[in-house]
Write a structure and sequence with these properties.
Order of helices and strands: HHHHHHHHHHEHEEHHHEHE
Largest sheet: 5 strands, mixed
Radius of gyration: 24 Å
Helix content: 55-70%
Number of domains: 2
Shape: globular
Number of helices: 15
Structural class: mainly alpha
Strand order of the largest sheet: 1-3-2-5-4
Distance between the termini: 51 Å
Length: 420
Amino acid sequence: MPDADELVANALAAVRGTDVRQAERQLDQLMVGTGAADGTTAVDAALLRRLVRGLGRLWPRGWQPVDVDRITGRRLDARAARLVRDAMAVQRRDQAEPVPAWWDDQLRELVTSQGGDDRKVLAGWATREGLDRADALRTAVDTLALVESLPPIAVLRPPPGTSGAALPRATGTARSGSPMLDRVRALLAKAESTTFPAEAEALTGKAQELIARHSIDEALLAAGSERGDLPGGVRLSTDAPYAGAKALLVQEVAAANRCEAVWSDDLGFATVLGWPADLVAVELLYTSLLVQATAAMLRGRAERRPGSGRRTKVWDESFLNAFALRIGERLRAATEAATDAADQAAAETAGAERLLPVLAARSEAVRERLDTLFPGVTRHRLSVRDAEGWSSGTSAADRASLDVGGGRKPRQVPGRPDPR
């Protein structure tokens, strides 16, 4: 009789193949177990052991806890994502090497409890999900197959177990509760909730103004210190529907905040590279503007003339693309105004030669980081398939959030097909 590790390996190989009957036969073998008195427990332990090992191999390949959680829910389902969370908690307990504080912060947001008996993790998860033995094993094997199939992605921060993991350097997004960020969040929350487009525009514009001023202050502060930080990165979800339009919105928000964005459409996220304060700004603005854009799109649908269009999806996509471009223009205008004001203030205090070179150097560092992590990225050309949707989206952005004409489009990781 095969041992538990061999049974798991056979089930995994069958799931990866094309023979459905063979996959079911191997699942039945898992159900039977090793034939020993503790055969079921041994199978559960082998599955968890291999899943934990697979997760540990992902961290040096660029994956972070939130990335694995997101793609598991995207490609499988919420139950599988919760199993991965439990396995990540086990993997963290087994991690003997240094683990950065931001890593534990991510894990705490995903995992409510990181204690318990590892031998009962799989059984406890199945009980909480209300799964019988067969469904639990099927989901566990599918989850393991996904984890072991994930490709390498850009390493945005030093992962656990590396020499840089213990360094408290701010190379990622700083989620500090600063008064300025609290004001920005409050402004964006009001912009999302108001039913008056002009008020939403004013609130979002004010938020971008505050963000731009904060970014300039951070840049000048960093320029006066001896810190050797590199630009960091964050990944933002661009799941369907309208993934391309979401990627375009990420790109426009990133460009307005001196960041660079790369879209990995098959993995369902866009990677934004920039300095910590700017990355926080992009996250906040993208999340809020996506809410505002969706609400404006739904209102626009309701205002369409009867019989004016047959394909709602095409209209929606054109609307969101136009909205993103127009918003990007307005965001950049707000950033430029704040930069001009700061430059003028610097001139009046005999520091005029300081600001613009600092900002230029930081932008160049972000571009160099982009070239290092994503050499040879491609550009995706935007196409308009519904003129009415485009016009409506542009008007909605004019009314409700912040101006663009449009040049830069989302970049994609090399080798990814352009969505049509």
